[in-house]
Please model this.
Amino acid sequence: MTDPAFLSLAEAGRRIAARTLTPRDLTEAILDRIARIDTALKSFITLDAAGARAAADAAGAEIAAGRWRGPLHGIPVALKDAYDTAGLRTTVGSRLYAANVPTKDAFAWAQLKAAGAVLLGKLETTELCYGGPSKDALFTPSRNPWDHGCYAGGSSSGAGVAVASGLCFGALGTDTGGSIRLPAAYCGITGLMCSTGLVSRSGVFPLSYSFDHFGPMARSAEDCALMLNAIVGYDAEDMTSVAPPRRDYHAGIDRGIEGLRIGTVAAAGEARFVSPDMAAATRVVAEVLRARGAILHEVPFPDLADFAACQFAITLAEGYALHEQALQTRRRDIGYFTRTRLSLGPFVRGYDYVAAQRLRRDLVDAYDRLMTGCDLVLLPGAPGEAPPAAQVGAFDFMKKPLVTVPANVLGAPAIALPAGFGPRGLPLSVQLMGRRYEEALVLRAGHAFQQATDWHTLRPRL
Model:
C-alpha cells in the first residue's frame, strides 16, 4: 500500500528514523486526507493543522540533528476530546464546556508529546463520556466508516473512526464500560484498556472514579504497545496512579503464545448476550489461538449480569455526583441521552452503592481465583456488528449486559481485536483479558493473533 496514511504506526516510525520519510510529509498527507474525507465522517471536532505542522517541523529538525526520541517521534496522533490540552479547547462533547480551554496538558498527553508525537487535534466523544448518538449533541456524532448510517460506538467514537479511516496513526481514549473497546470493535481497529492506575487520569474528564480507565487505540497490538510505552508513568497528582517496574511493552511482543493457557467463556459470552455471528467469530478466534500453540479450556467466568449490575449502580451514583449541579441548573444544556441517563443517579441509594462495591469485591476475588488456572481469558468484543445509529436508544445498555463491562469492574487489562465481519459486512471483534498489570502478555497474545490473521489490516472503502 503506497498511501502513507495506512502505514502501521510502527512502520511509519521506522521510516522516519531511517529518514526515508519526514514528519512534515507524513503530517501533510494526513491533513490532506482529513480535509478530503472527514467532512463526511465528523471524527475531528477541533483540528489544529497549524500546531501539527509546527510540531512536525520541530520533530524533523530534531531528527536531522541526531536527536531521535523513539518510534513515536514525528508520528501524527489525536486525542479523544476528554484529554486536556493546554491552549486547545477540551469540550467533552458538551455545551457545558464548549468554551473550555485548559492551561495544562493531561499527564498522558504530556507523556506522549515528550515522546515526540505530533498532535493533529481533538476527536468527537459522546457527551460527558456517557451520551450516545444524540441528535441534540453539541457536535454531529461521528459516522462509522464502514456504514455511515451505523453507530461508531461510544464514548471514544471519533477515535475509532479516525484510526480506522487513516486520519491518525493512533489515539488516546477513555473507557468506563467499554468506551475504548466498543468503538474499536465497531470500527475494526485495536483498542487497549489498561489496568487501573497504569495510565494517569490527571487532566482527563471523569465519569466514574471507580471504573474510568485509559489507553491507546491504533490499528494493531504492536502499535498499541508502542503508544503504551510512552504514556505509562507514575503521577503523584493521581491518587490511583501506580508505579509498576518500568518495562518495554514492545520488547518480546514476537515471542508467540506457545503453551499459554487461555480460558474460554461459553455461557457468559455467547447465546445470552451476543449475536450468533459474534459467538461464531469468537469460536473461530479460539481455533486460531489454538493453532498458534495456546492451550484453551472453558473457565467458570462470573455472570455478565452481575458485572453489569455492579457497574450500572456505581457509575450512575458517581456520575450523578459529578454533574448534580449542572443537571439542576443547566439541564437543557445537556443532551437528551446524557441527561436522561444521569438522571437515574438519585435513585441509587447509599445501600445500593455499598452493595455494588461489595459485589465488585466478590467478582474480583472470583476472577483472581479463575486466573490461577489460566493466563488470559477470551471473550466476544461487542454484542455484534455496529447497530444503525438511529436505533440506538438512551437505555439500551440496561437491556442487555455489555461484554466489555467486566474488565472495568475488575480493573484488568483488555484488548479489542478485529475478528472478521458480520452478515452486513461490518467488523466483529474479540477481547483478550489478562491479570492486572500484565498488559505485556495481553499485547503479546494480541500480536500473535494478528500475525496469523489479516482482519486488522483491512480498511473501509471511503
Summary: The chain has a mean pLDDT of 96. The first strand starts at residue 44 and ends at 47. The chain has 15 helices and eleven strands. The first helix runs from residue 9 to 17.
